[in-house]
Automatic annotation (TrEMBL):
Family: Belongs to the methyltransferase superfamily. L-isoaspartyl/D-aspartyl protein methyltransferase family.
Any Gene Ontology biological process: methylation
Gene3D superfamilies noted in UniProt: Vaccinia Virus protein VP39
Record protein name field: Protein-L-isoaspartate O-methyltransferase
PANTHER family found in the cross-reference section: PROTEIN-L-ISOASPARTATE O-METHYLTRANSFERASE, PROTEIN-L-ISOASPARTATE(D-ASPARTATE) O-METHYLTRANSFERASE
Catalysis performed (reactions): [protein]-L-isoaspartate + S-adenosyl-L-methionine = [protein]-L-isoaspartate alpha-methyl ester + S-adenosyl-L-homocysteine
EC number annotated for this UniProt entry: 2.1.1.77
InterPro entries: PCMT (IPR000682), SAM-dependent_MTases_sf (IPR029063)
Described purpose of this protein according to its UniProt entry: Catalyzes the methyl esterification of L-isoaspartyl residues in peptides and proteins that result from spontaneous decomposition of normal L-aspartyl and L-asparaginyl residues. It plays a role in the repair and/or degradation of damaged proteins.
Pfam families in alphabetical order: PCMT (PF01135)
Main location: cytoplasm
HAMAP family per record: PIMT (MF_00090)
Superkingdom, natural source: Bacteria
Length: 213
């Protein structure tokens, strides 16, 4: 669990890359600059940890590209104390970014192998989500709703209705929608049945799977 000066230097280079790609939220950039991404990956991938690329993490899942993590985090406009529902805990890297931004994070993972690994690993780094849950992200987390924001970290073939219904008024759902290539969507809840939809271009994610594995 080492985080060396070399790693820290590589992180600052990564922050510069993200700034050059248009990420402007300083709190998001500071979070990326602080979190040791290499610890979320297998040691064989250490050389790749601070490249702006996605990499496999097991269970046919990936650790998202840092730009994508930063982009989705920026769209959420998180304020300290906001309740955020994350669909797809994965490696826990995005969870750590949300925690670093001061969010109260509720995160759902449907791959048991990843769930077990990440729920042990995150607290070791000092990142404590309010709840890490092994379950089906399509149904959200009704018990803890409403949320200030919902972030989906896998490609969804459609927008799950429960995720919209679990938003507070003014809350945001950031979700990549599509099959092979996804369009990043943001839905802002304007009223009980009123949502504003915005699109932010193409991204590539692993698919969002239903049911538990």
């Amino acid at each position: 669990m080492k985080d060396t000066f070399k790693h820290q230097g590589l992180r600052q280079q990564l922050v510069k890359i993200l700034e050059n790609k248009g990420i402007t939220d300083t709190r998001v950039l500071n979070a990326i600059g602080k979190i040791p991404r290499h610890l979320f990956m297998d040691s064989s991938f250490l050389d790749h940890a601070y490249q702006d690329k996605a990499f496999p993490i097991g269970a046919d899942q990936t650790i998202s590209q840092p730009y994508t993590v930063a982009f989705q985090s920026e769209l959420l406009k998180i304020k300290p104390g906001n309740k955020i529902l994350e669909i797809g805990t994965g490696s826990g890297y995005q969870t750590a970014v949300l925690c670093e931004l001061g969010a109260k994070v509720y995160s759902i993972e449907r791959q048991n192998e990843l769930f077990k690994k990440t729920s042990k690993f995150l607290p070791k780094l000092g990142y404590r989500a309010k709840k890490l849950i092994f379950g089906d992200g399509y149904i959200g987390l009704e018990d803890e709703a409403p949320f200030d924001g919902v972030i989906v970290t896998a490609g969804a073939p459609f927008v799950p209705k429960p995720l919209l219904s679990q938003l507070k008024i003014g809350g945001r759902l950031v979700i990549p929608v599509g099959d092979d290539v996804q369009i990043m969507n943001m839905f802002t809840r304007k009223g009980p049945k009123e949502f504003e939809q915005e699109e932010f271009g193409e991204f590539r994610f692993v698919p969002l799977l239903e049911d538990k594995n």
